[in-house]
Amino acid sequence: MRVRAYRFRAYCSKTTTRVLKTQLEVACKLYNTLLHAEQEEYEENKRTMSRNELRQLALDLRKQNKEFQVLYSQVAQQVADRFYEARQRFFDGLANKPREKKPHRYLSLVYSQKGWKLSNWREVGQGKNKKKKARLYLSKIGFFTLVIHREFPLERVSQVCVKLYPSGRIYVIFLVEEPEAEEQQSEKPKNAVGVDLGITRLATLSDGRYLENPRPLERSLERIRLLQRRLSRKKFLSNNWIKAKRRLAKQYEHVKNLRRDLFFKLGVLLSQKYDVLVLEDLNVQGLIQKGVTKTRRMRLYDSSFSELRAVLEWEFRKREKLVLPVPAYNSSRECFLCGGINKGLTLEDRVFLCPHCGFILDRDLNASLVLLKRAGWVPPDAPVELRPIPPLPSLGLRGQGVAMIQEAPAFRRGSSHG
Asked: Probable transposase IS891/IS1136/IS1341 domain: from which residue to which, for each copy (predicted)?
C-alpha cells in the first residue's frame, strides 16, 4: 500500500492554539523520556525495546504522570512509534542516532483512526474559487476550521497529523491509504519529452521550450539576511526571539511555497501532454560539493533539482505514465547528431559546437535531445530555436503567489510525519 497526503490549512482560536502548543511540549517530553528509558534498558540488559514495549511504556507513563494525561492515548502511542522509527533509521544507516528533542522543534501530533471527527461541511466561494469548509475536532485539543480545496476519500483515512509550522501557521494532513499503482499503459506511448535541468534555465525541454529559473531564494536573500540579523540580536527563546524566529520562518515558507507551486504546475503541464518523461539521473549532492563559488552552491540549492524531479515523477506516475531516468554523464558535451564529445566545453559556453560534425545548437537544448536519444526516443525534427513556456497561471492552473500546494508525493508506510 502507498499513502497519499492531503494537506489543508487550519484555523482555530487562540485558546486552541495554546492547548496545541502545550501538548506539543508534553509530547516532546514524553519522547525524551522514552529515549532515556531505552538508553537505561540497553545499559542494564544490552537489549532494545520493541515497538509494542515502547507503546506500552508510553501508556504506563501516561497513567502514572498527570502531565502526560493531557495527551490522547493514541497520540502517546504515536510518539512511541516516532521514536521507534527514528531508532530503526539509525540501525539501517539512514540517519544519526536519536537525540533529545527540543520543545520548539517538536511540531506535530498524529491521530490514528480514532480521536478525530469531521463535521459541519459547507461550501464557500463562487466559480473557480469554490471550496468547502469543515470543522475538525481533535480529542484533548479542540476544534479547527479547515479549508478543503480538493476532494479526498474520507473513508480511507488512516492517520490525521496536525502540524504547527515554525511560521505559526497550522496545517492538518490526512494520510490516505491507496493500493500501489502498477506502471502499465493501455496504449503504446506516443510521445516523449526530455528535460535538462539547469541553473540559468530551470528546465529545457526537447521540444524547444524552456522555463526560466525564478530563483526565489536569491530574490528574497536581502530580506532573509535582515531578519536573520534581527534574530541574532535577540535573547535565545525569549518572547522577542520567538517573534523574530516566526517572521524568518514565514519568509522561508513563502520561498518554499513559490518554488513548489511552480514545480507542480510544470508537472501538470508536462504530464497532460506527454506519455514518457526522460530525466537525467543527477547526483545533486555531488554537484553542490563541487561548486566552485558560494554563489553557485547557493543557486544549486535554490534550484532544488531533487524536489523538482520528485514532483515531475509523481505527476507522471499518478497518471500511470512512464518515467525513464538516464545517465547524466557527458550529456552536455555529447553531440545529439553524431554522438561525438566536445571535451573543451565549459560552463560559460551557452552554445554547443560539435568539433566532429560542426553541429551547432543551444547547449541546454542539445542536452535535452541527448537525454531523449539515450532513452531510445529520437524526434523526427530537432527544434532549431528556443521559446519560453508561457506564464503558468495562463494555462488554466492556479495563479501565482503563496498558493496552496495541490499535490503531495506519496510515500510508503513507516516514513516520518514530524
From this structure: 181-288
Structurally, the chain folds into a number of domains equal to: 2
* Residues in CB range of 189: below 8 A, 6 or more apart: 275, 276, 321, 322
Determine the Cα angle at 277 with ends 376 and 2, to 5°.
125
Domain boundary at 70, 86, 111, which?
111
| Single residue among 111, 142, 165 that ends a domain in this structure | 111
* Cβ neighbours for 280, distance < 8 A, ≥ 6 positions apart: 195, 196, 197, 325, 326, 327, 328, 331, 367, 371
Whether residue 75 lies inside any domain: the answer is: yes
- The length of the chain in residues reads 418
Q: What is the DSSP string of 245-288?
A: HHHHHHHHHHHHHHHHHHHHHHHHHHHHH-SEEEEEE--HHHHH
pLDDT in tens, 268-314: 999 998 989 999 888 777 777 776 688 888 888 888 888 999 999 98
Task: List beta partners, residue 186.
Answer: none
On the 0-12 / 13-18 / 19+ scale of CB atoms within 10 A, 145 is: middle
| Per-residue pLDDT reduced to its tens digit, 51-81 | 999 999 999 999 999 999 999 999 999 999 9
Is 325 within a domain?
Answer: yes
Which runs of E-coded beta strand occur in 56-208? 108-111, 116-124, 131-138, 142-148, 157-164, 170-178, 192-197, 201-205
Task: Write out the residue range of the structural domain in which residue 378 sits.
Answer: 192-411
CA 243/CA 247 separation, integer angstroms:
6
Cα–Cα distance for residue pair 192/205, rounded to 1 Å: 10
